[in-house]
Specification:
Number of helices: 2
Strand content: 35-45%
Order of helices and strands: EEEEEEEEEEEEEHEEEEEH
Helix content: under 10%
Number of strands: 18
CATH topology of the largest domain: Jelly Rolls
Number of domains: 2
CATH superfamily of the largest domain: Spermadhesin, CUB domain
Length: about 260
């Protein structure tokens, strides 16, 4: 079956532009060709170039379908100042039994990785996205900075609560469900992501952007790296200990669930 057939003249119909992609060329006359590319983080599936051809005495048509841009597949090493990561097939449902790994490396070794989620929809408790510090997938001793604004949601928000919710804590980020996660920041110039799904249900997945940022632009952790649960300490922006507050007990509770 011919694609984009036009009858009675020498001009093929407008083939359109792929979603999450671009078209190069606007000449649809007989014999002309146009090209397609995809945005960063997406791969082209289909023909990169199509040509307007004659298919009969009175009809012209494009040589192939307009291509589509699919989310870049698993096991990808990403290096650059910024970019996009999506679950496979996003914004279409991801596949069952997926096992995908991404490792992000900042161009500047003095920078850390900031990960910001735009969309997030995974089957709660069964499909997960784990985010870790460094370049070794599965490392359990590492810590990340995660905003407290959503972790404290639902609690009584006094003035003190609002102020302290701007701080960050070390956190092992195993993400699932349909709540868009808060900002996640590595402590090193590398970050890894592991996406795993089961064999039953699948949802729309996730979309996140990553960016290299100077490490000094983020506050010190409230708990020093690799510190045990024995002592709860809060730290100011200049590293000076703060008076124990309601936040300290909340952090202790969080560490019980995320040791």
């Amino acid at each position: 079956t011919q694609v984009g057939v036009s009858q009675g003249h020498n001009l093929c119909p407008d083939p359109g532009i792929p979603e999450r992609g671009k078209r190069i060329g606007n000449d649809f006359r007989l014999g002309s060709s146009i090209q397609f590319t995809c945005n960063e983080g997406y791969d082209l599936q289909g023909s990169k170039s199509i040509t307007c051809k004659r298919v009969s005495d009175i009809m012209v048509a494009w040589s192939d379908h307009r291509p589509v841009c699919r989310a870049r597949m698993c096991d990808t090493y990403l290096r650059g100042p910024s970019g996009v990561i999506t679950s496979p097939n996003y914004p279409v449902q991801y596949d069952n039994n997926a096992y995908c790994v991404w490792v992000i490396t900042a161009l500047n070794p003095a920078k850390v990785i900031k990960l910001t989620f735009e969309e997030f929809e995974l089957e709660r408790g069964y499909d997960t996205l784990t985010v870790g510090d460094g370049g070794q997938v599965g490392e359990q001793k590492s810590v990340l900075y995660v905003s407290l604004s959503k972790l404290l949601s639902g609690q009584k928000r006094s003035r003190e609560w609002v102020e302290t919710s701007r701080e960050t804590i070390p956190f092992a980020a195993g993400l699932t469900g349909t709540t868009v996660p808060d900002l996640i920041v590595s402590t090193q110039p590398q970050m890894w992501l592991l996406f795993q799904t089961d064999s039953v249900s699948n949802l729309l997945g996730f979309k996140a952007t990553y960016e290299g940022n100077p490490g000094s632009s983020f506050p010190n952790p409230l708990f020093p790296k690799d510190q045990g649960p024995a002592e709860c300490r809060d730290w100011g922006e200049k590293g000076a200990p703060l008076k124990k507050s309601k936040l300290c007990s909340v952090l202790a509770k969080i560490r019980e669930f995320y040791p």
